[in-house]
Amino acid sequence: MNDSLPSVVTSQTYPVLRLKPHEDRRVGAGHLWIFSNEIDTKQTRMADLPPGGFVSVQSDRGKFLGFAYCNPHSLIAARIISRHAAFAPGPSLIVHRLRVALALRERFYAAPYYRLVHGESDELPGLVVDRFGDTLVVQIGALGMEVQKEAIVAGLEKVIKPKNIVFKNDSGARDLEGLPKYVEAAIGDVPEELEIIEDGATFRAPLATGQKTGWFYDQAANRRSFLGLAKGAGRVLDVFSYVGGWGVQAARAGAEVVCVDSSAPALEAATRNGERNGVTVQTRKGDAFDVLEQLHAEREKFDVVIVDPPAFIKRRKDAPKGEAAYKRINQLAMQLLPRDGLLVSCSCSYHLEPSALIDGIQKAGRHLGRFVQVIANGGQSPDHPTHPAIPETRYLKAFLCRVTHD
Ligand code: SAH
Prior knowledge:
By secondary structure, the chain is α/β, with parallel strands linked by helices.
């Protein structure tokens, strides 16, 4: 502790992380992150900051701003976990946050299939928990949360009482925090497959080899509303289908469905998911850009084409290339529509503004001489709340467009 700084009255004192003048504005506006260049390193003893441990964050004038966990070696040097001097960080704060997060989901979901914790938006920065009934899949993206693993497991046991708690800590984001990658069970075991119930359909998705936590709950609301609007569609093409989240629901609504993905295991799972729900989905394996060109060469037509790709823009510097890829894939999709068809176009790239996606769709339409009307747009499902002060928490865009000939 630096003796010259006023200390905060709590049962425990934490090392002080002092910000440079004016660098308290973003945190004051509600953001939770502190970047390394915002720290007053003359007044903060960097050597005292415990990697992954808690600190007390203060403005340049010594005003208490919150408790945070820190990672002195990361660009995001600290993330606020509590703004109240009376709410010290630790196991009981985690239990409190989990209870508040659960209350939101229980308000909007009838069954226990949802994202239980969405990181910063649930005031648990760096922590994601997806719930698959009795199985919880946890993803940690920050050193401070990794240090809290035991408290997280204990908190989840207390609040949810699940059978399995699995850490699926294998995302690339962990490199930035200097964290190793692994998949392991903290409670119970690592099930091979997860079961999901969504809108009356039952799905299974691989866990260890699956994408993200195994399922894309963020799209559930869009699947429901867009497919509701597209009811009665004859032929549906589900591009980047993964295990058939969109395609199987379209088939249940009566459509003839083809799923496209580059992953054979994902398509095998999509086929089984169809069977599980008493419908058939056909599959085409390959790079989506190539498959869509082939389908066009074969003069295939689909009344609805769904384009739900992985993030083409992972870092800001990839934006120009990524925007071109979004335009290209939407153009290829549009070519497969009849004279009056529907395009569902999505992007989970935070670095792509909604207007930029629409712009790409419109340019693709102009290129092909098609008239585009935006019928509906969507964002993340309610279990992925966005934090108004943290734009990074708002990443998903989905548009339902009608495409006709000029
Ligand atoms: N639409 C899915 C989620 C898509 S995840 C859902 O709602 O659940 C992205 C999928 O794209 C993954 O299954 C991945 O295997 C696939 N993929 C990634 N790059 C691809 C490419 N170039 N061509 C085809 N599929 C690709």
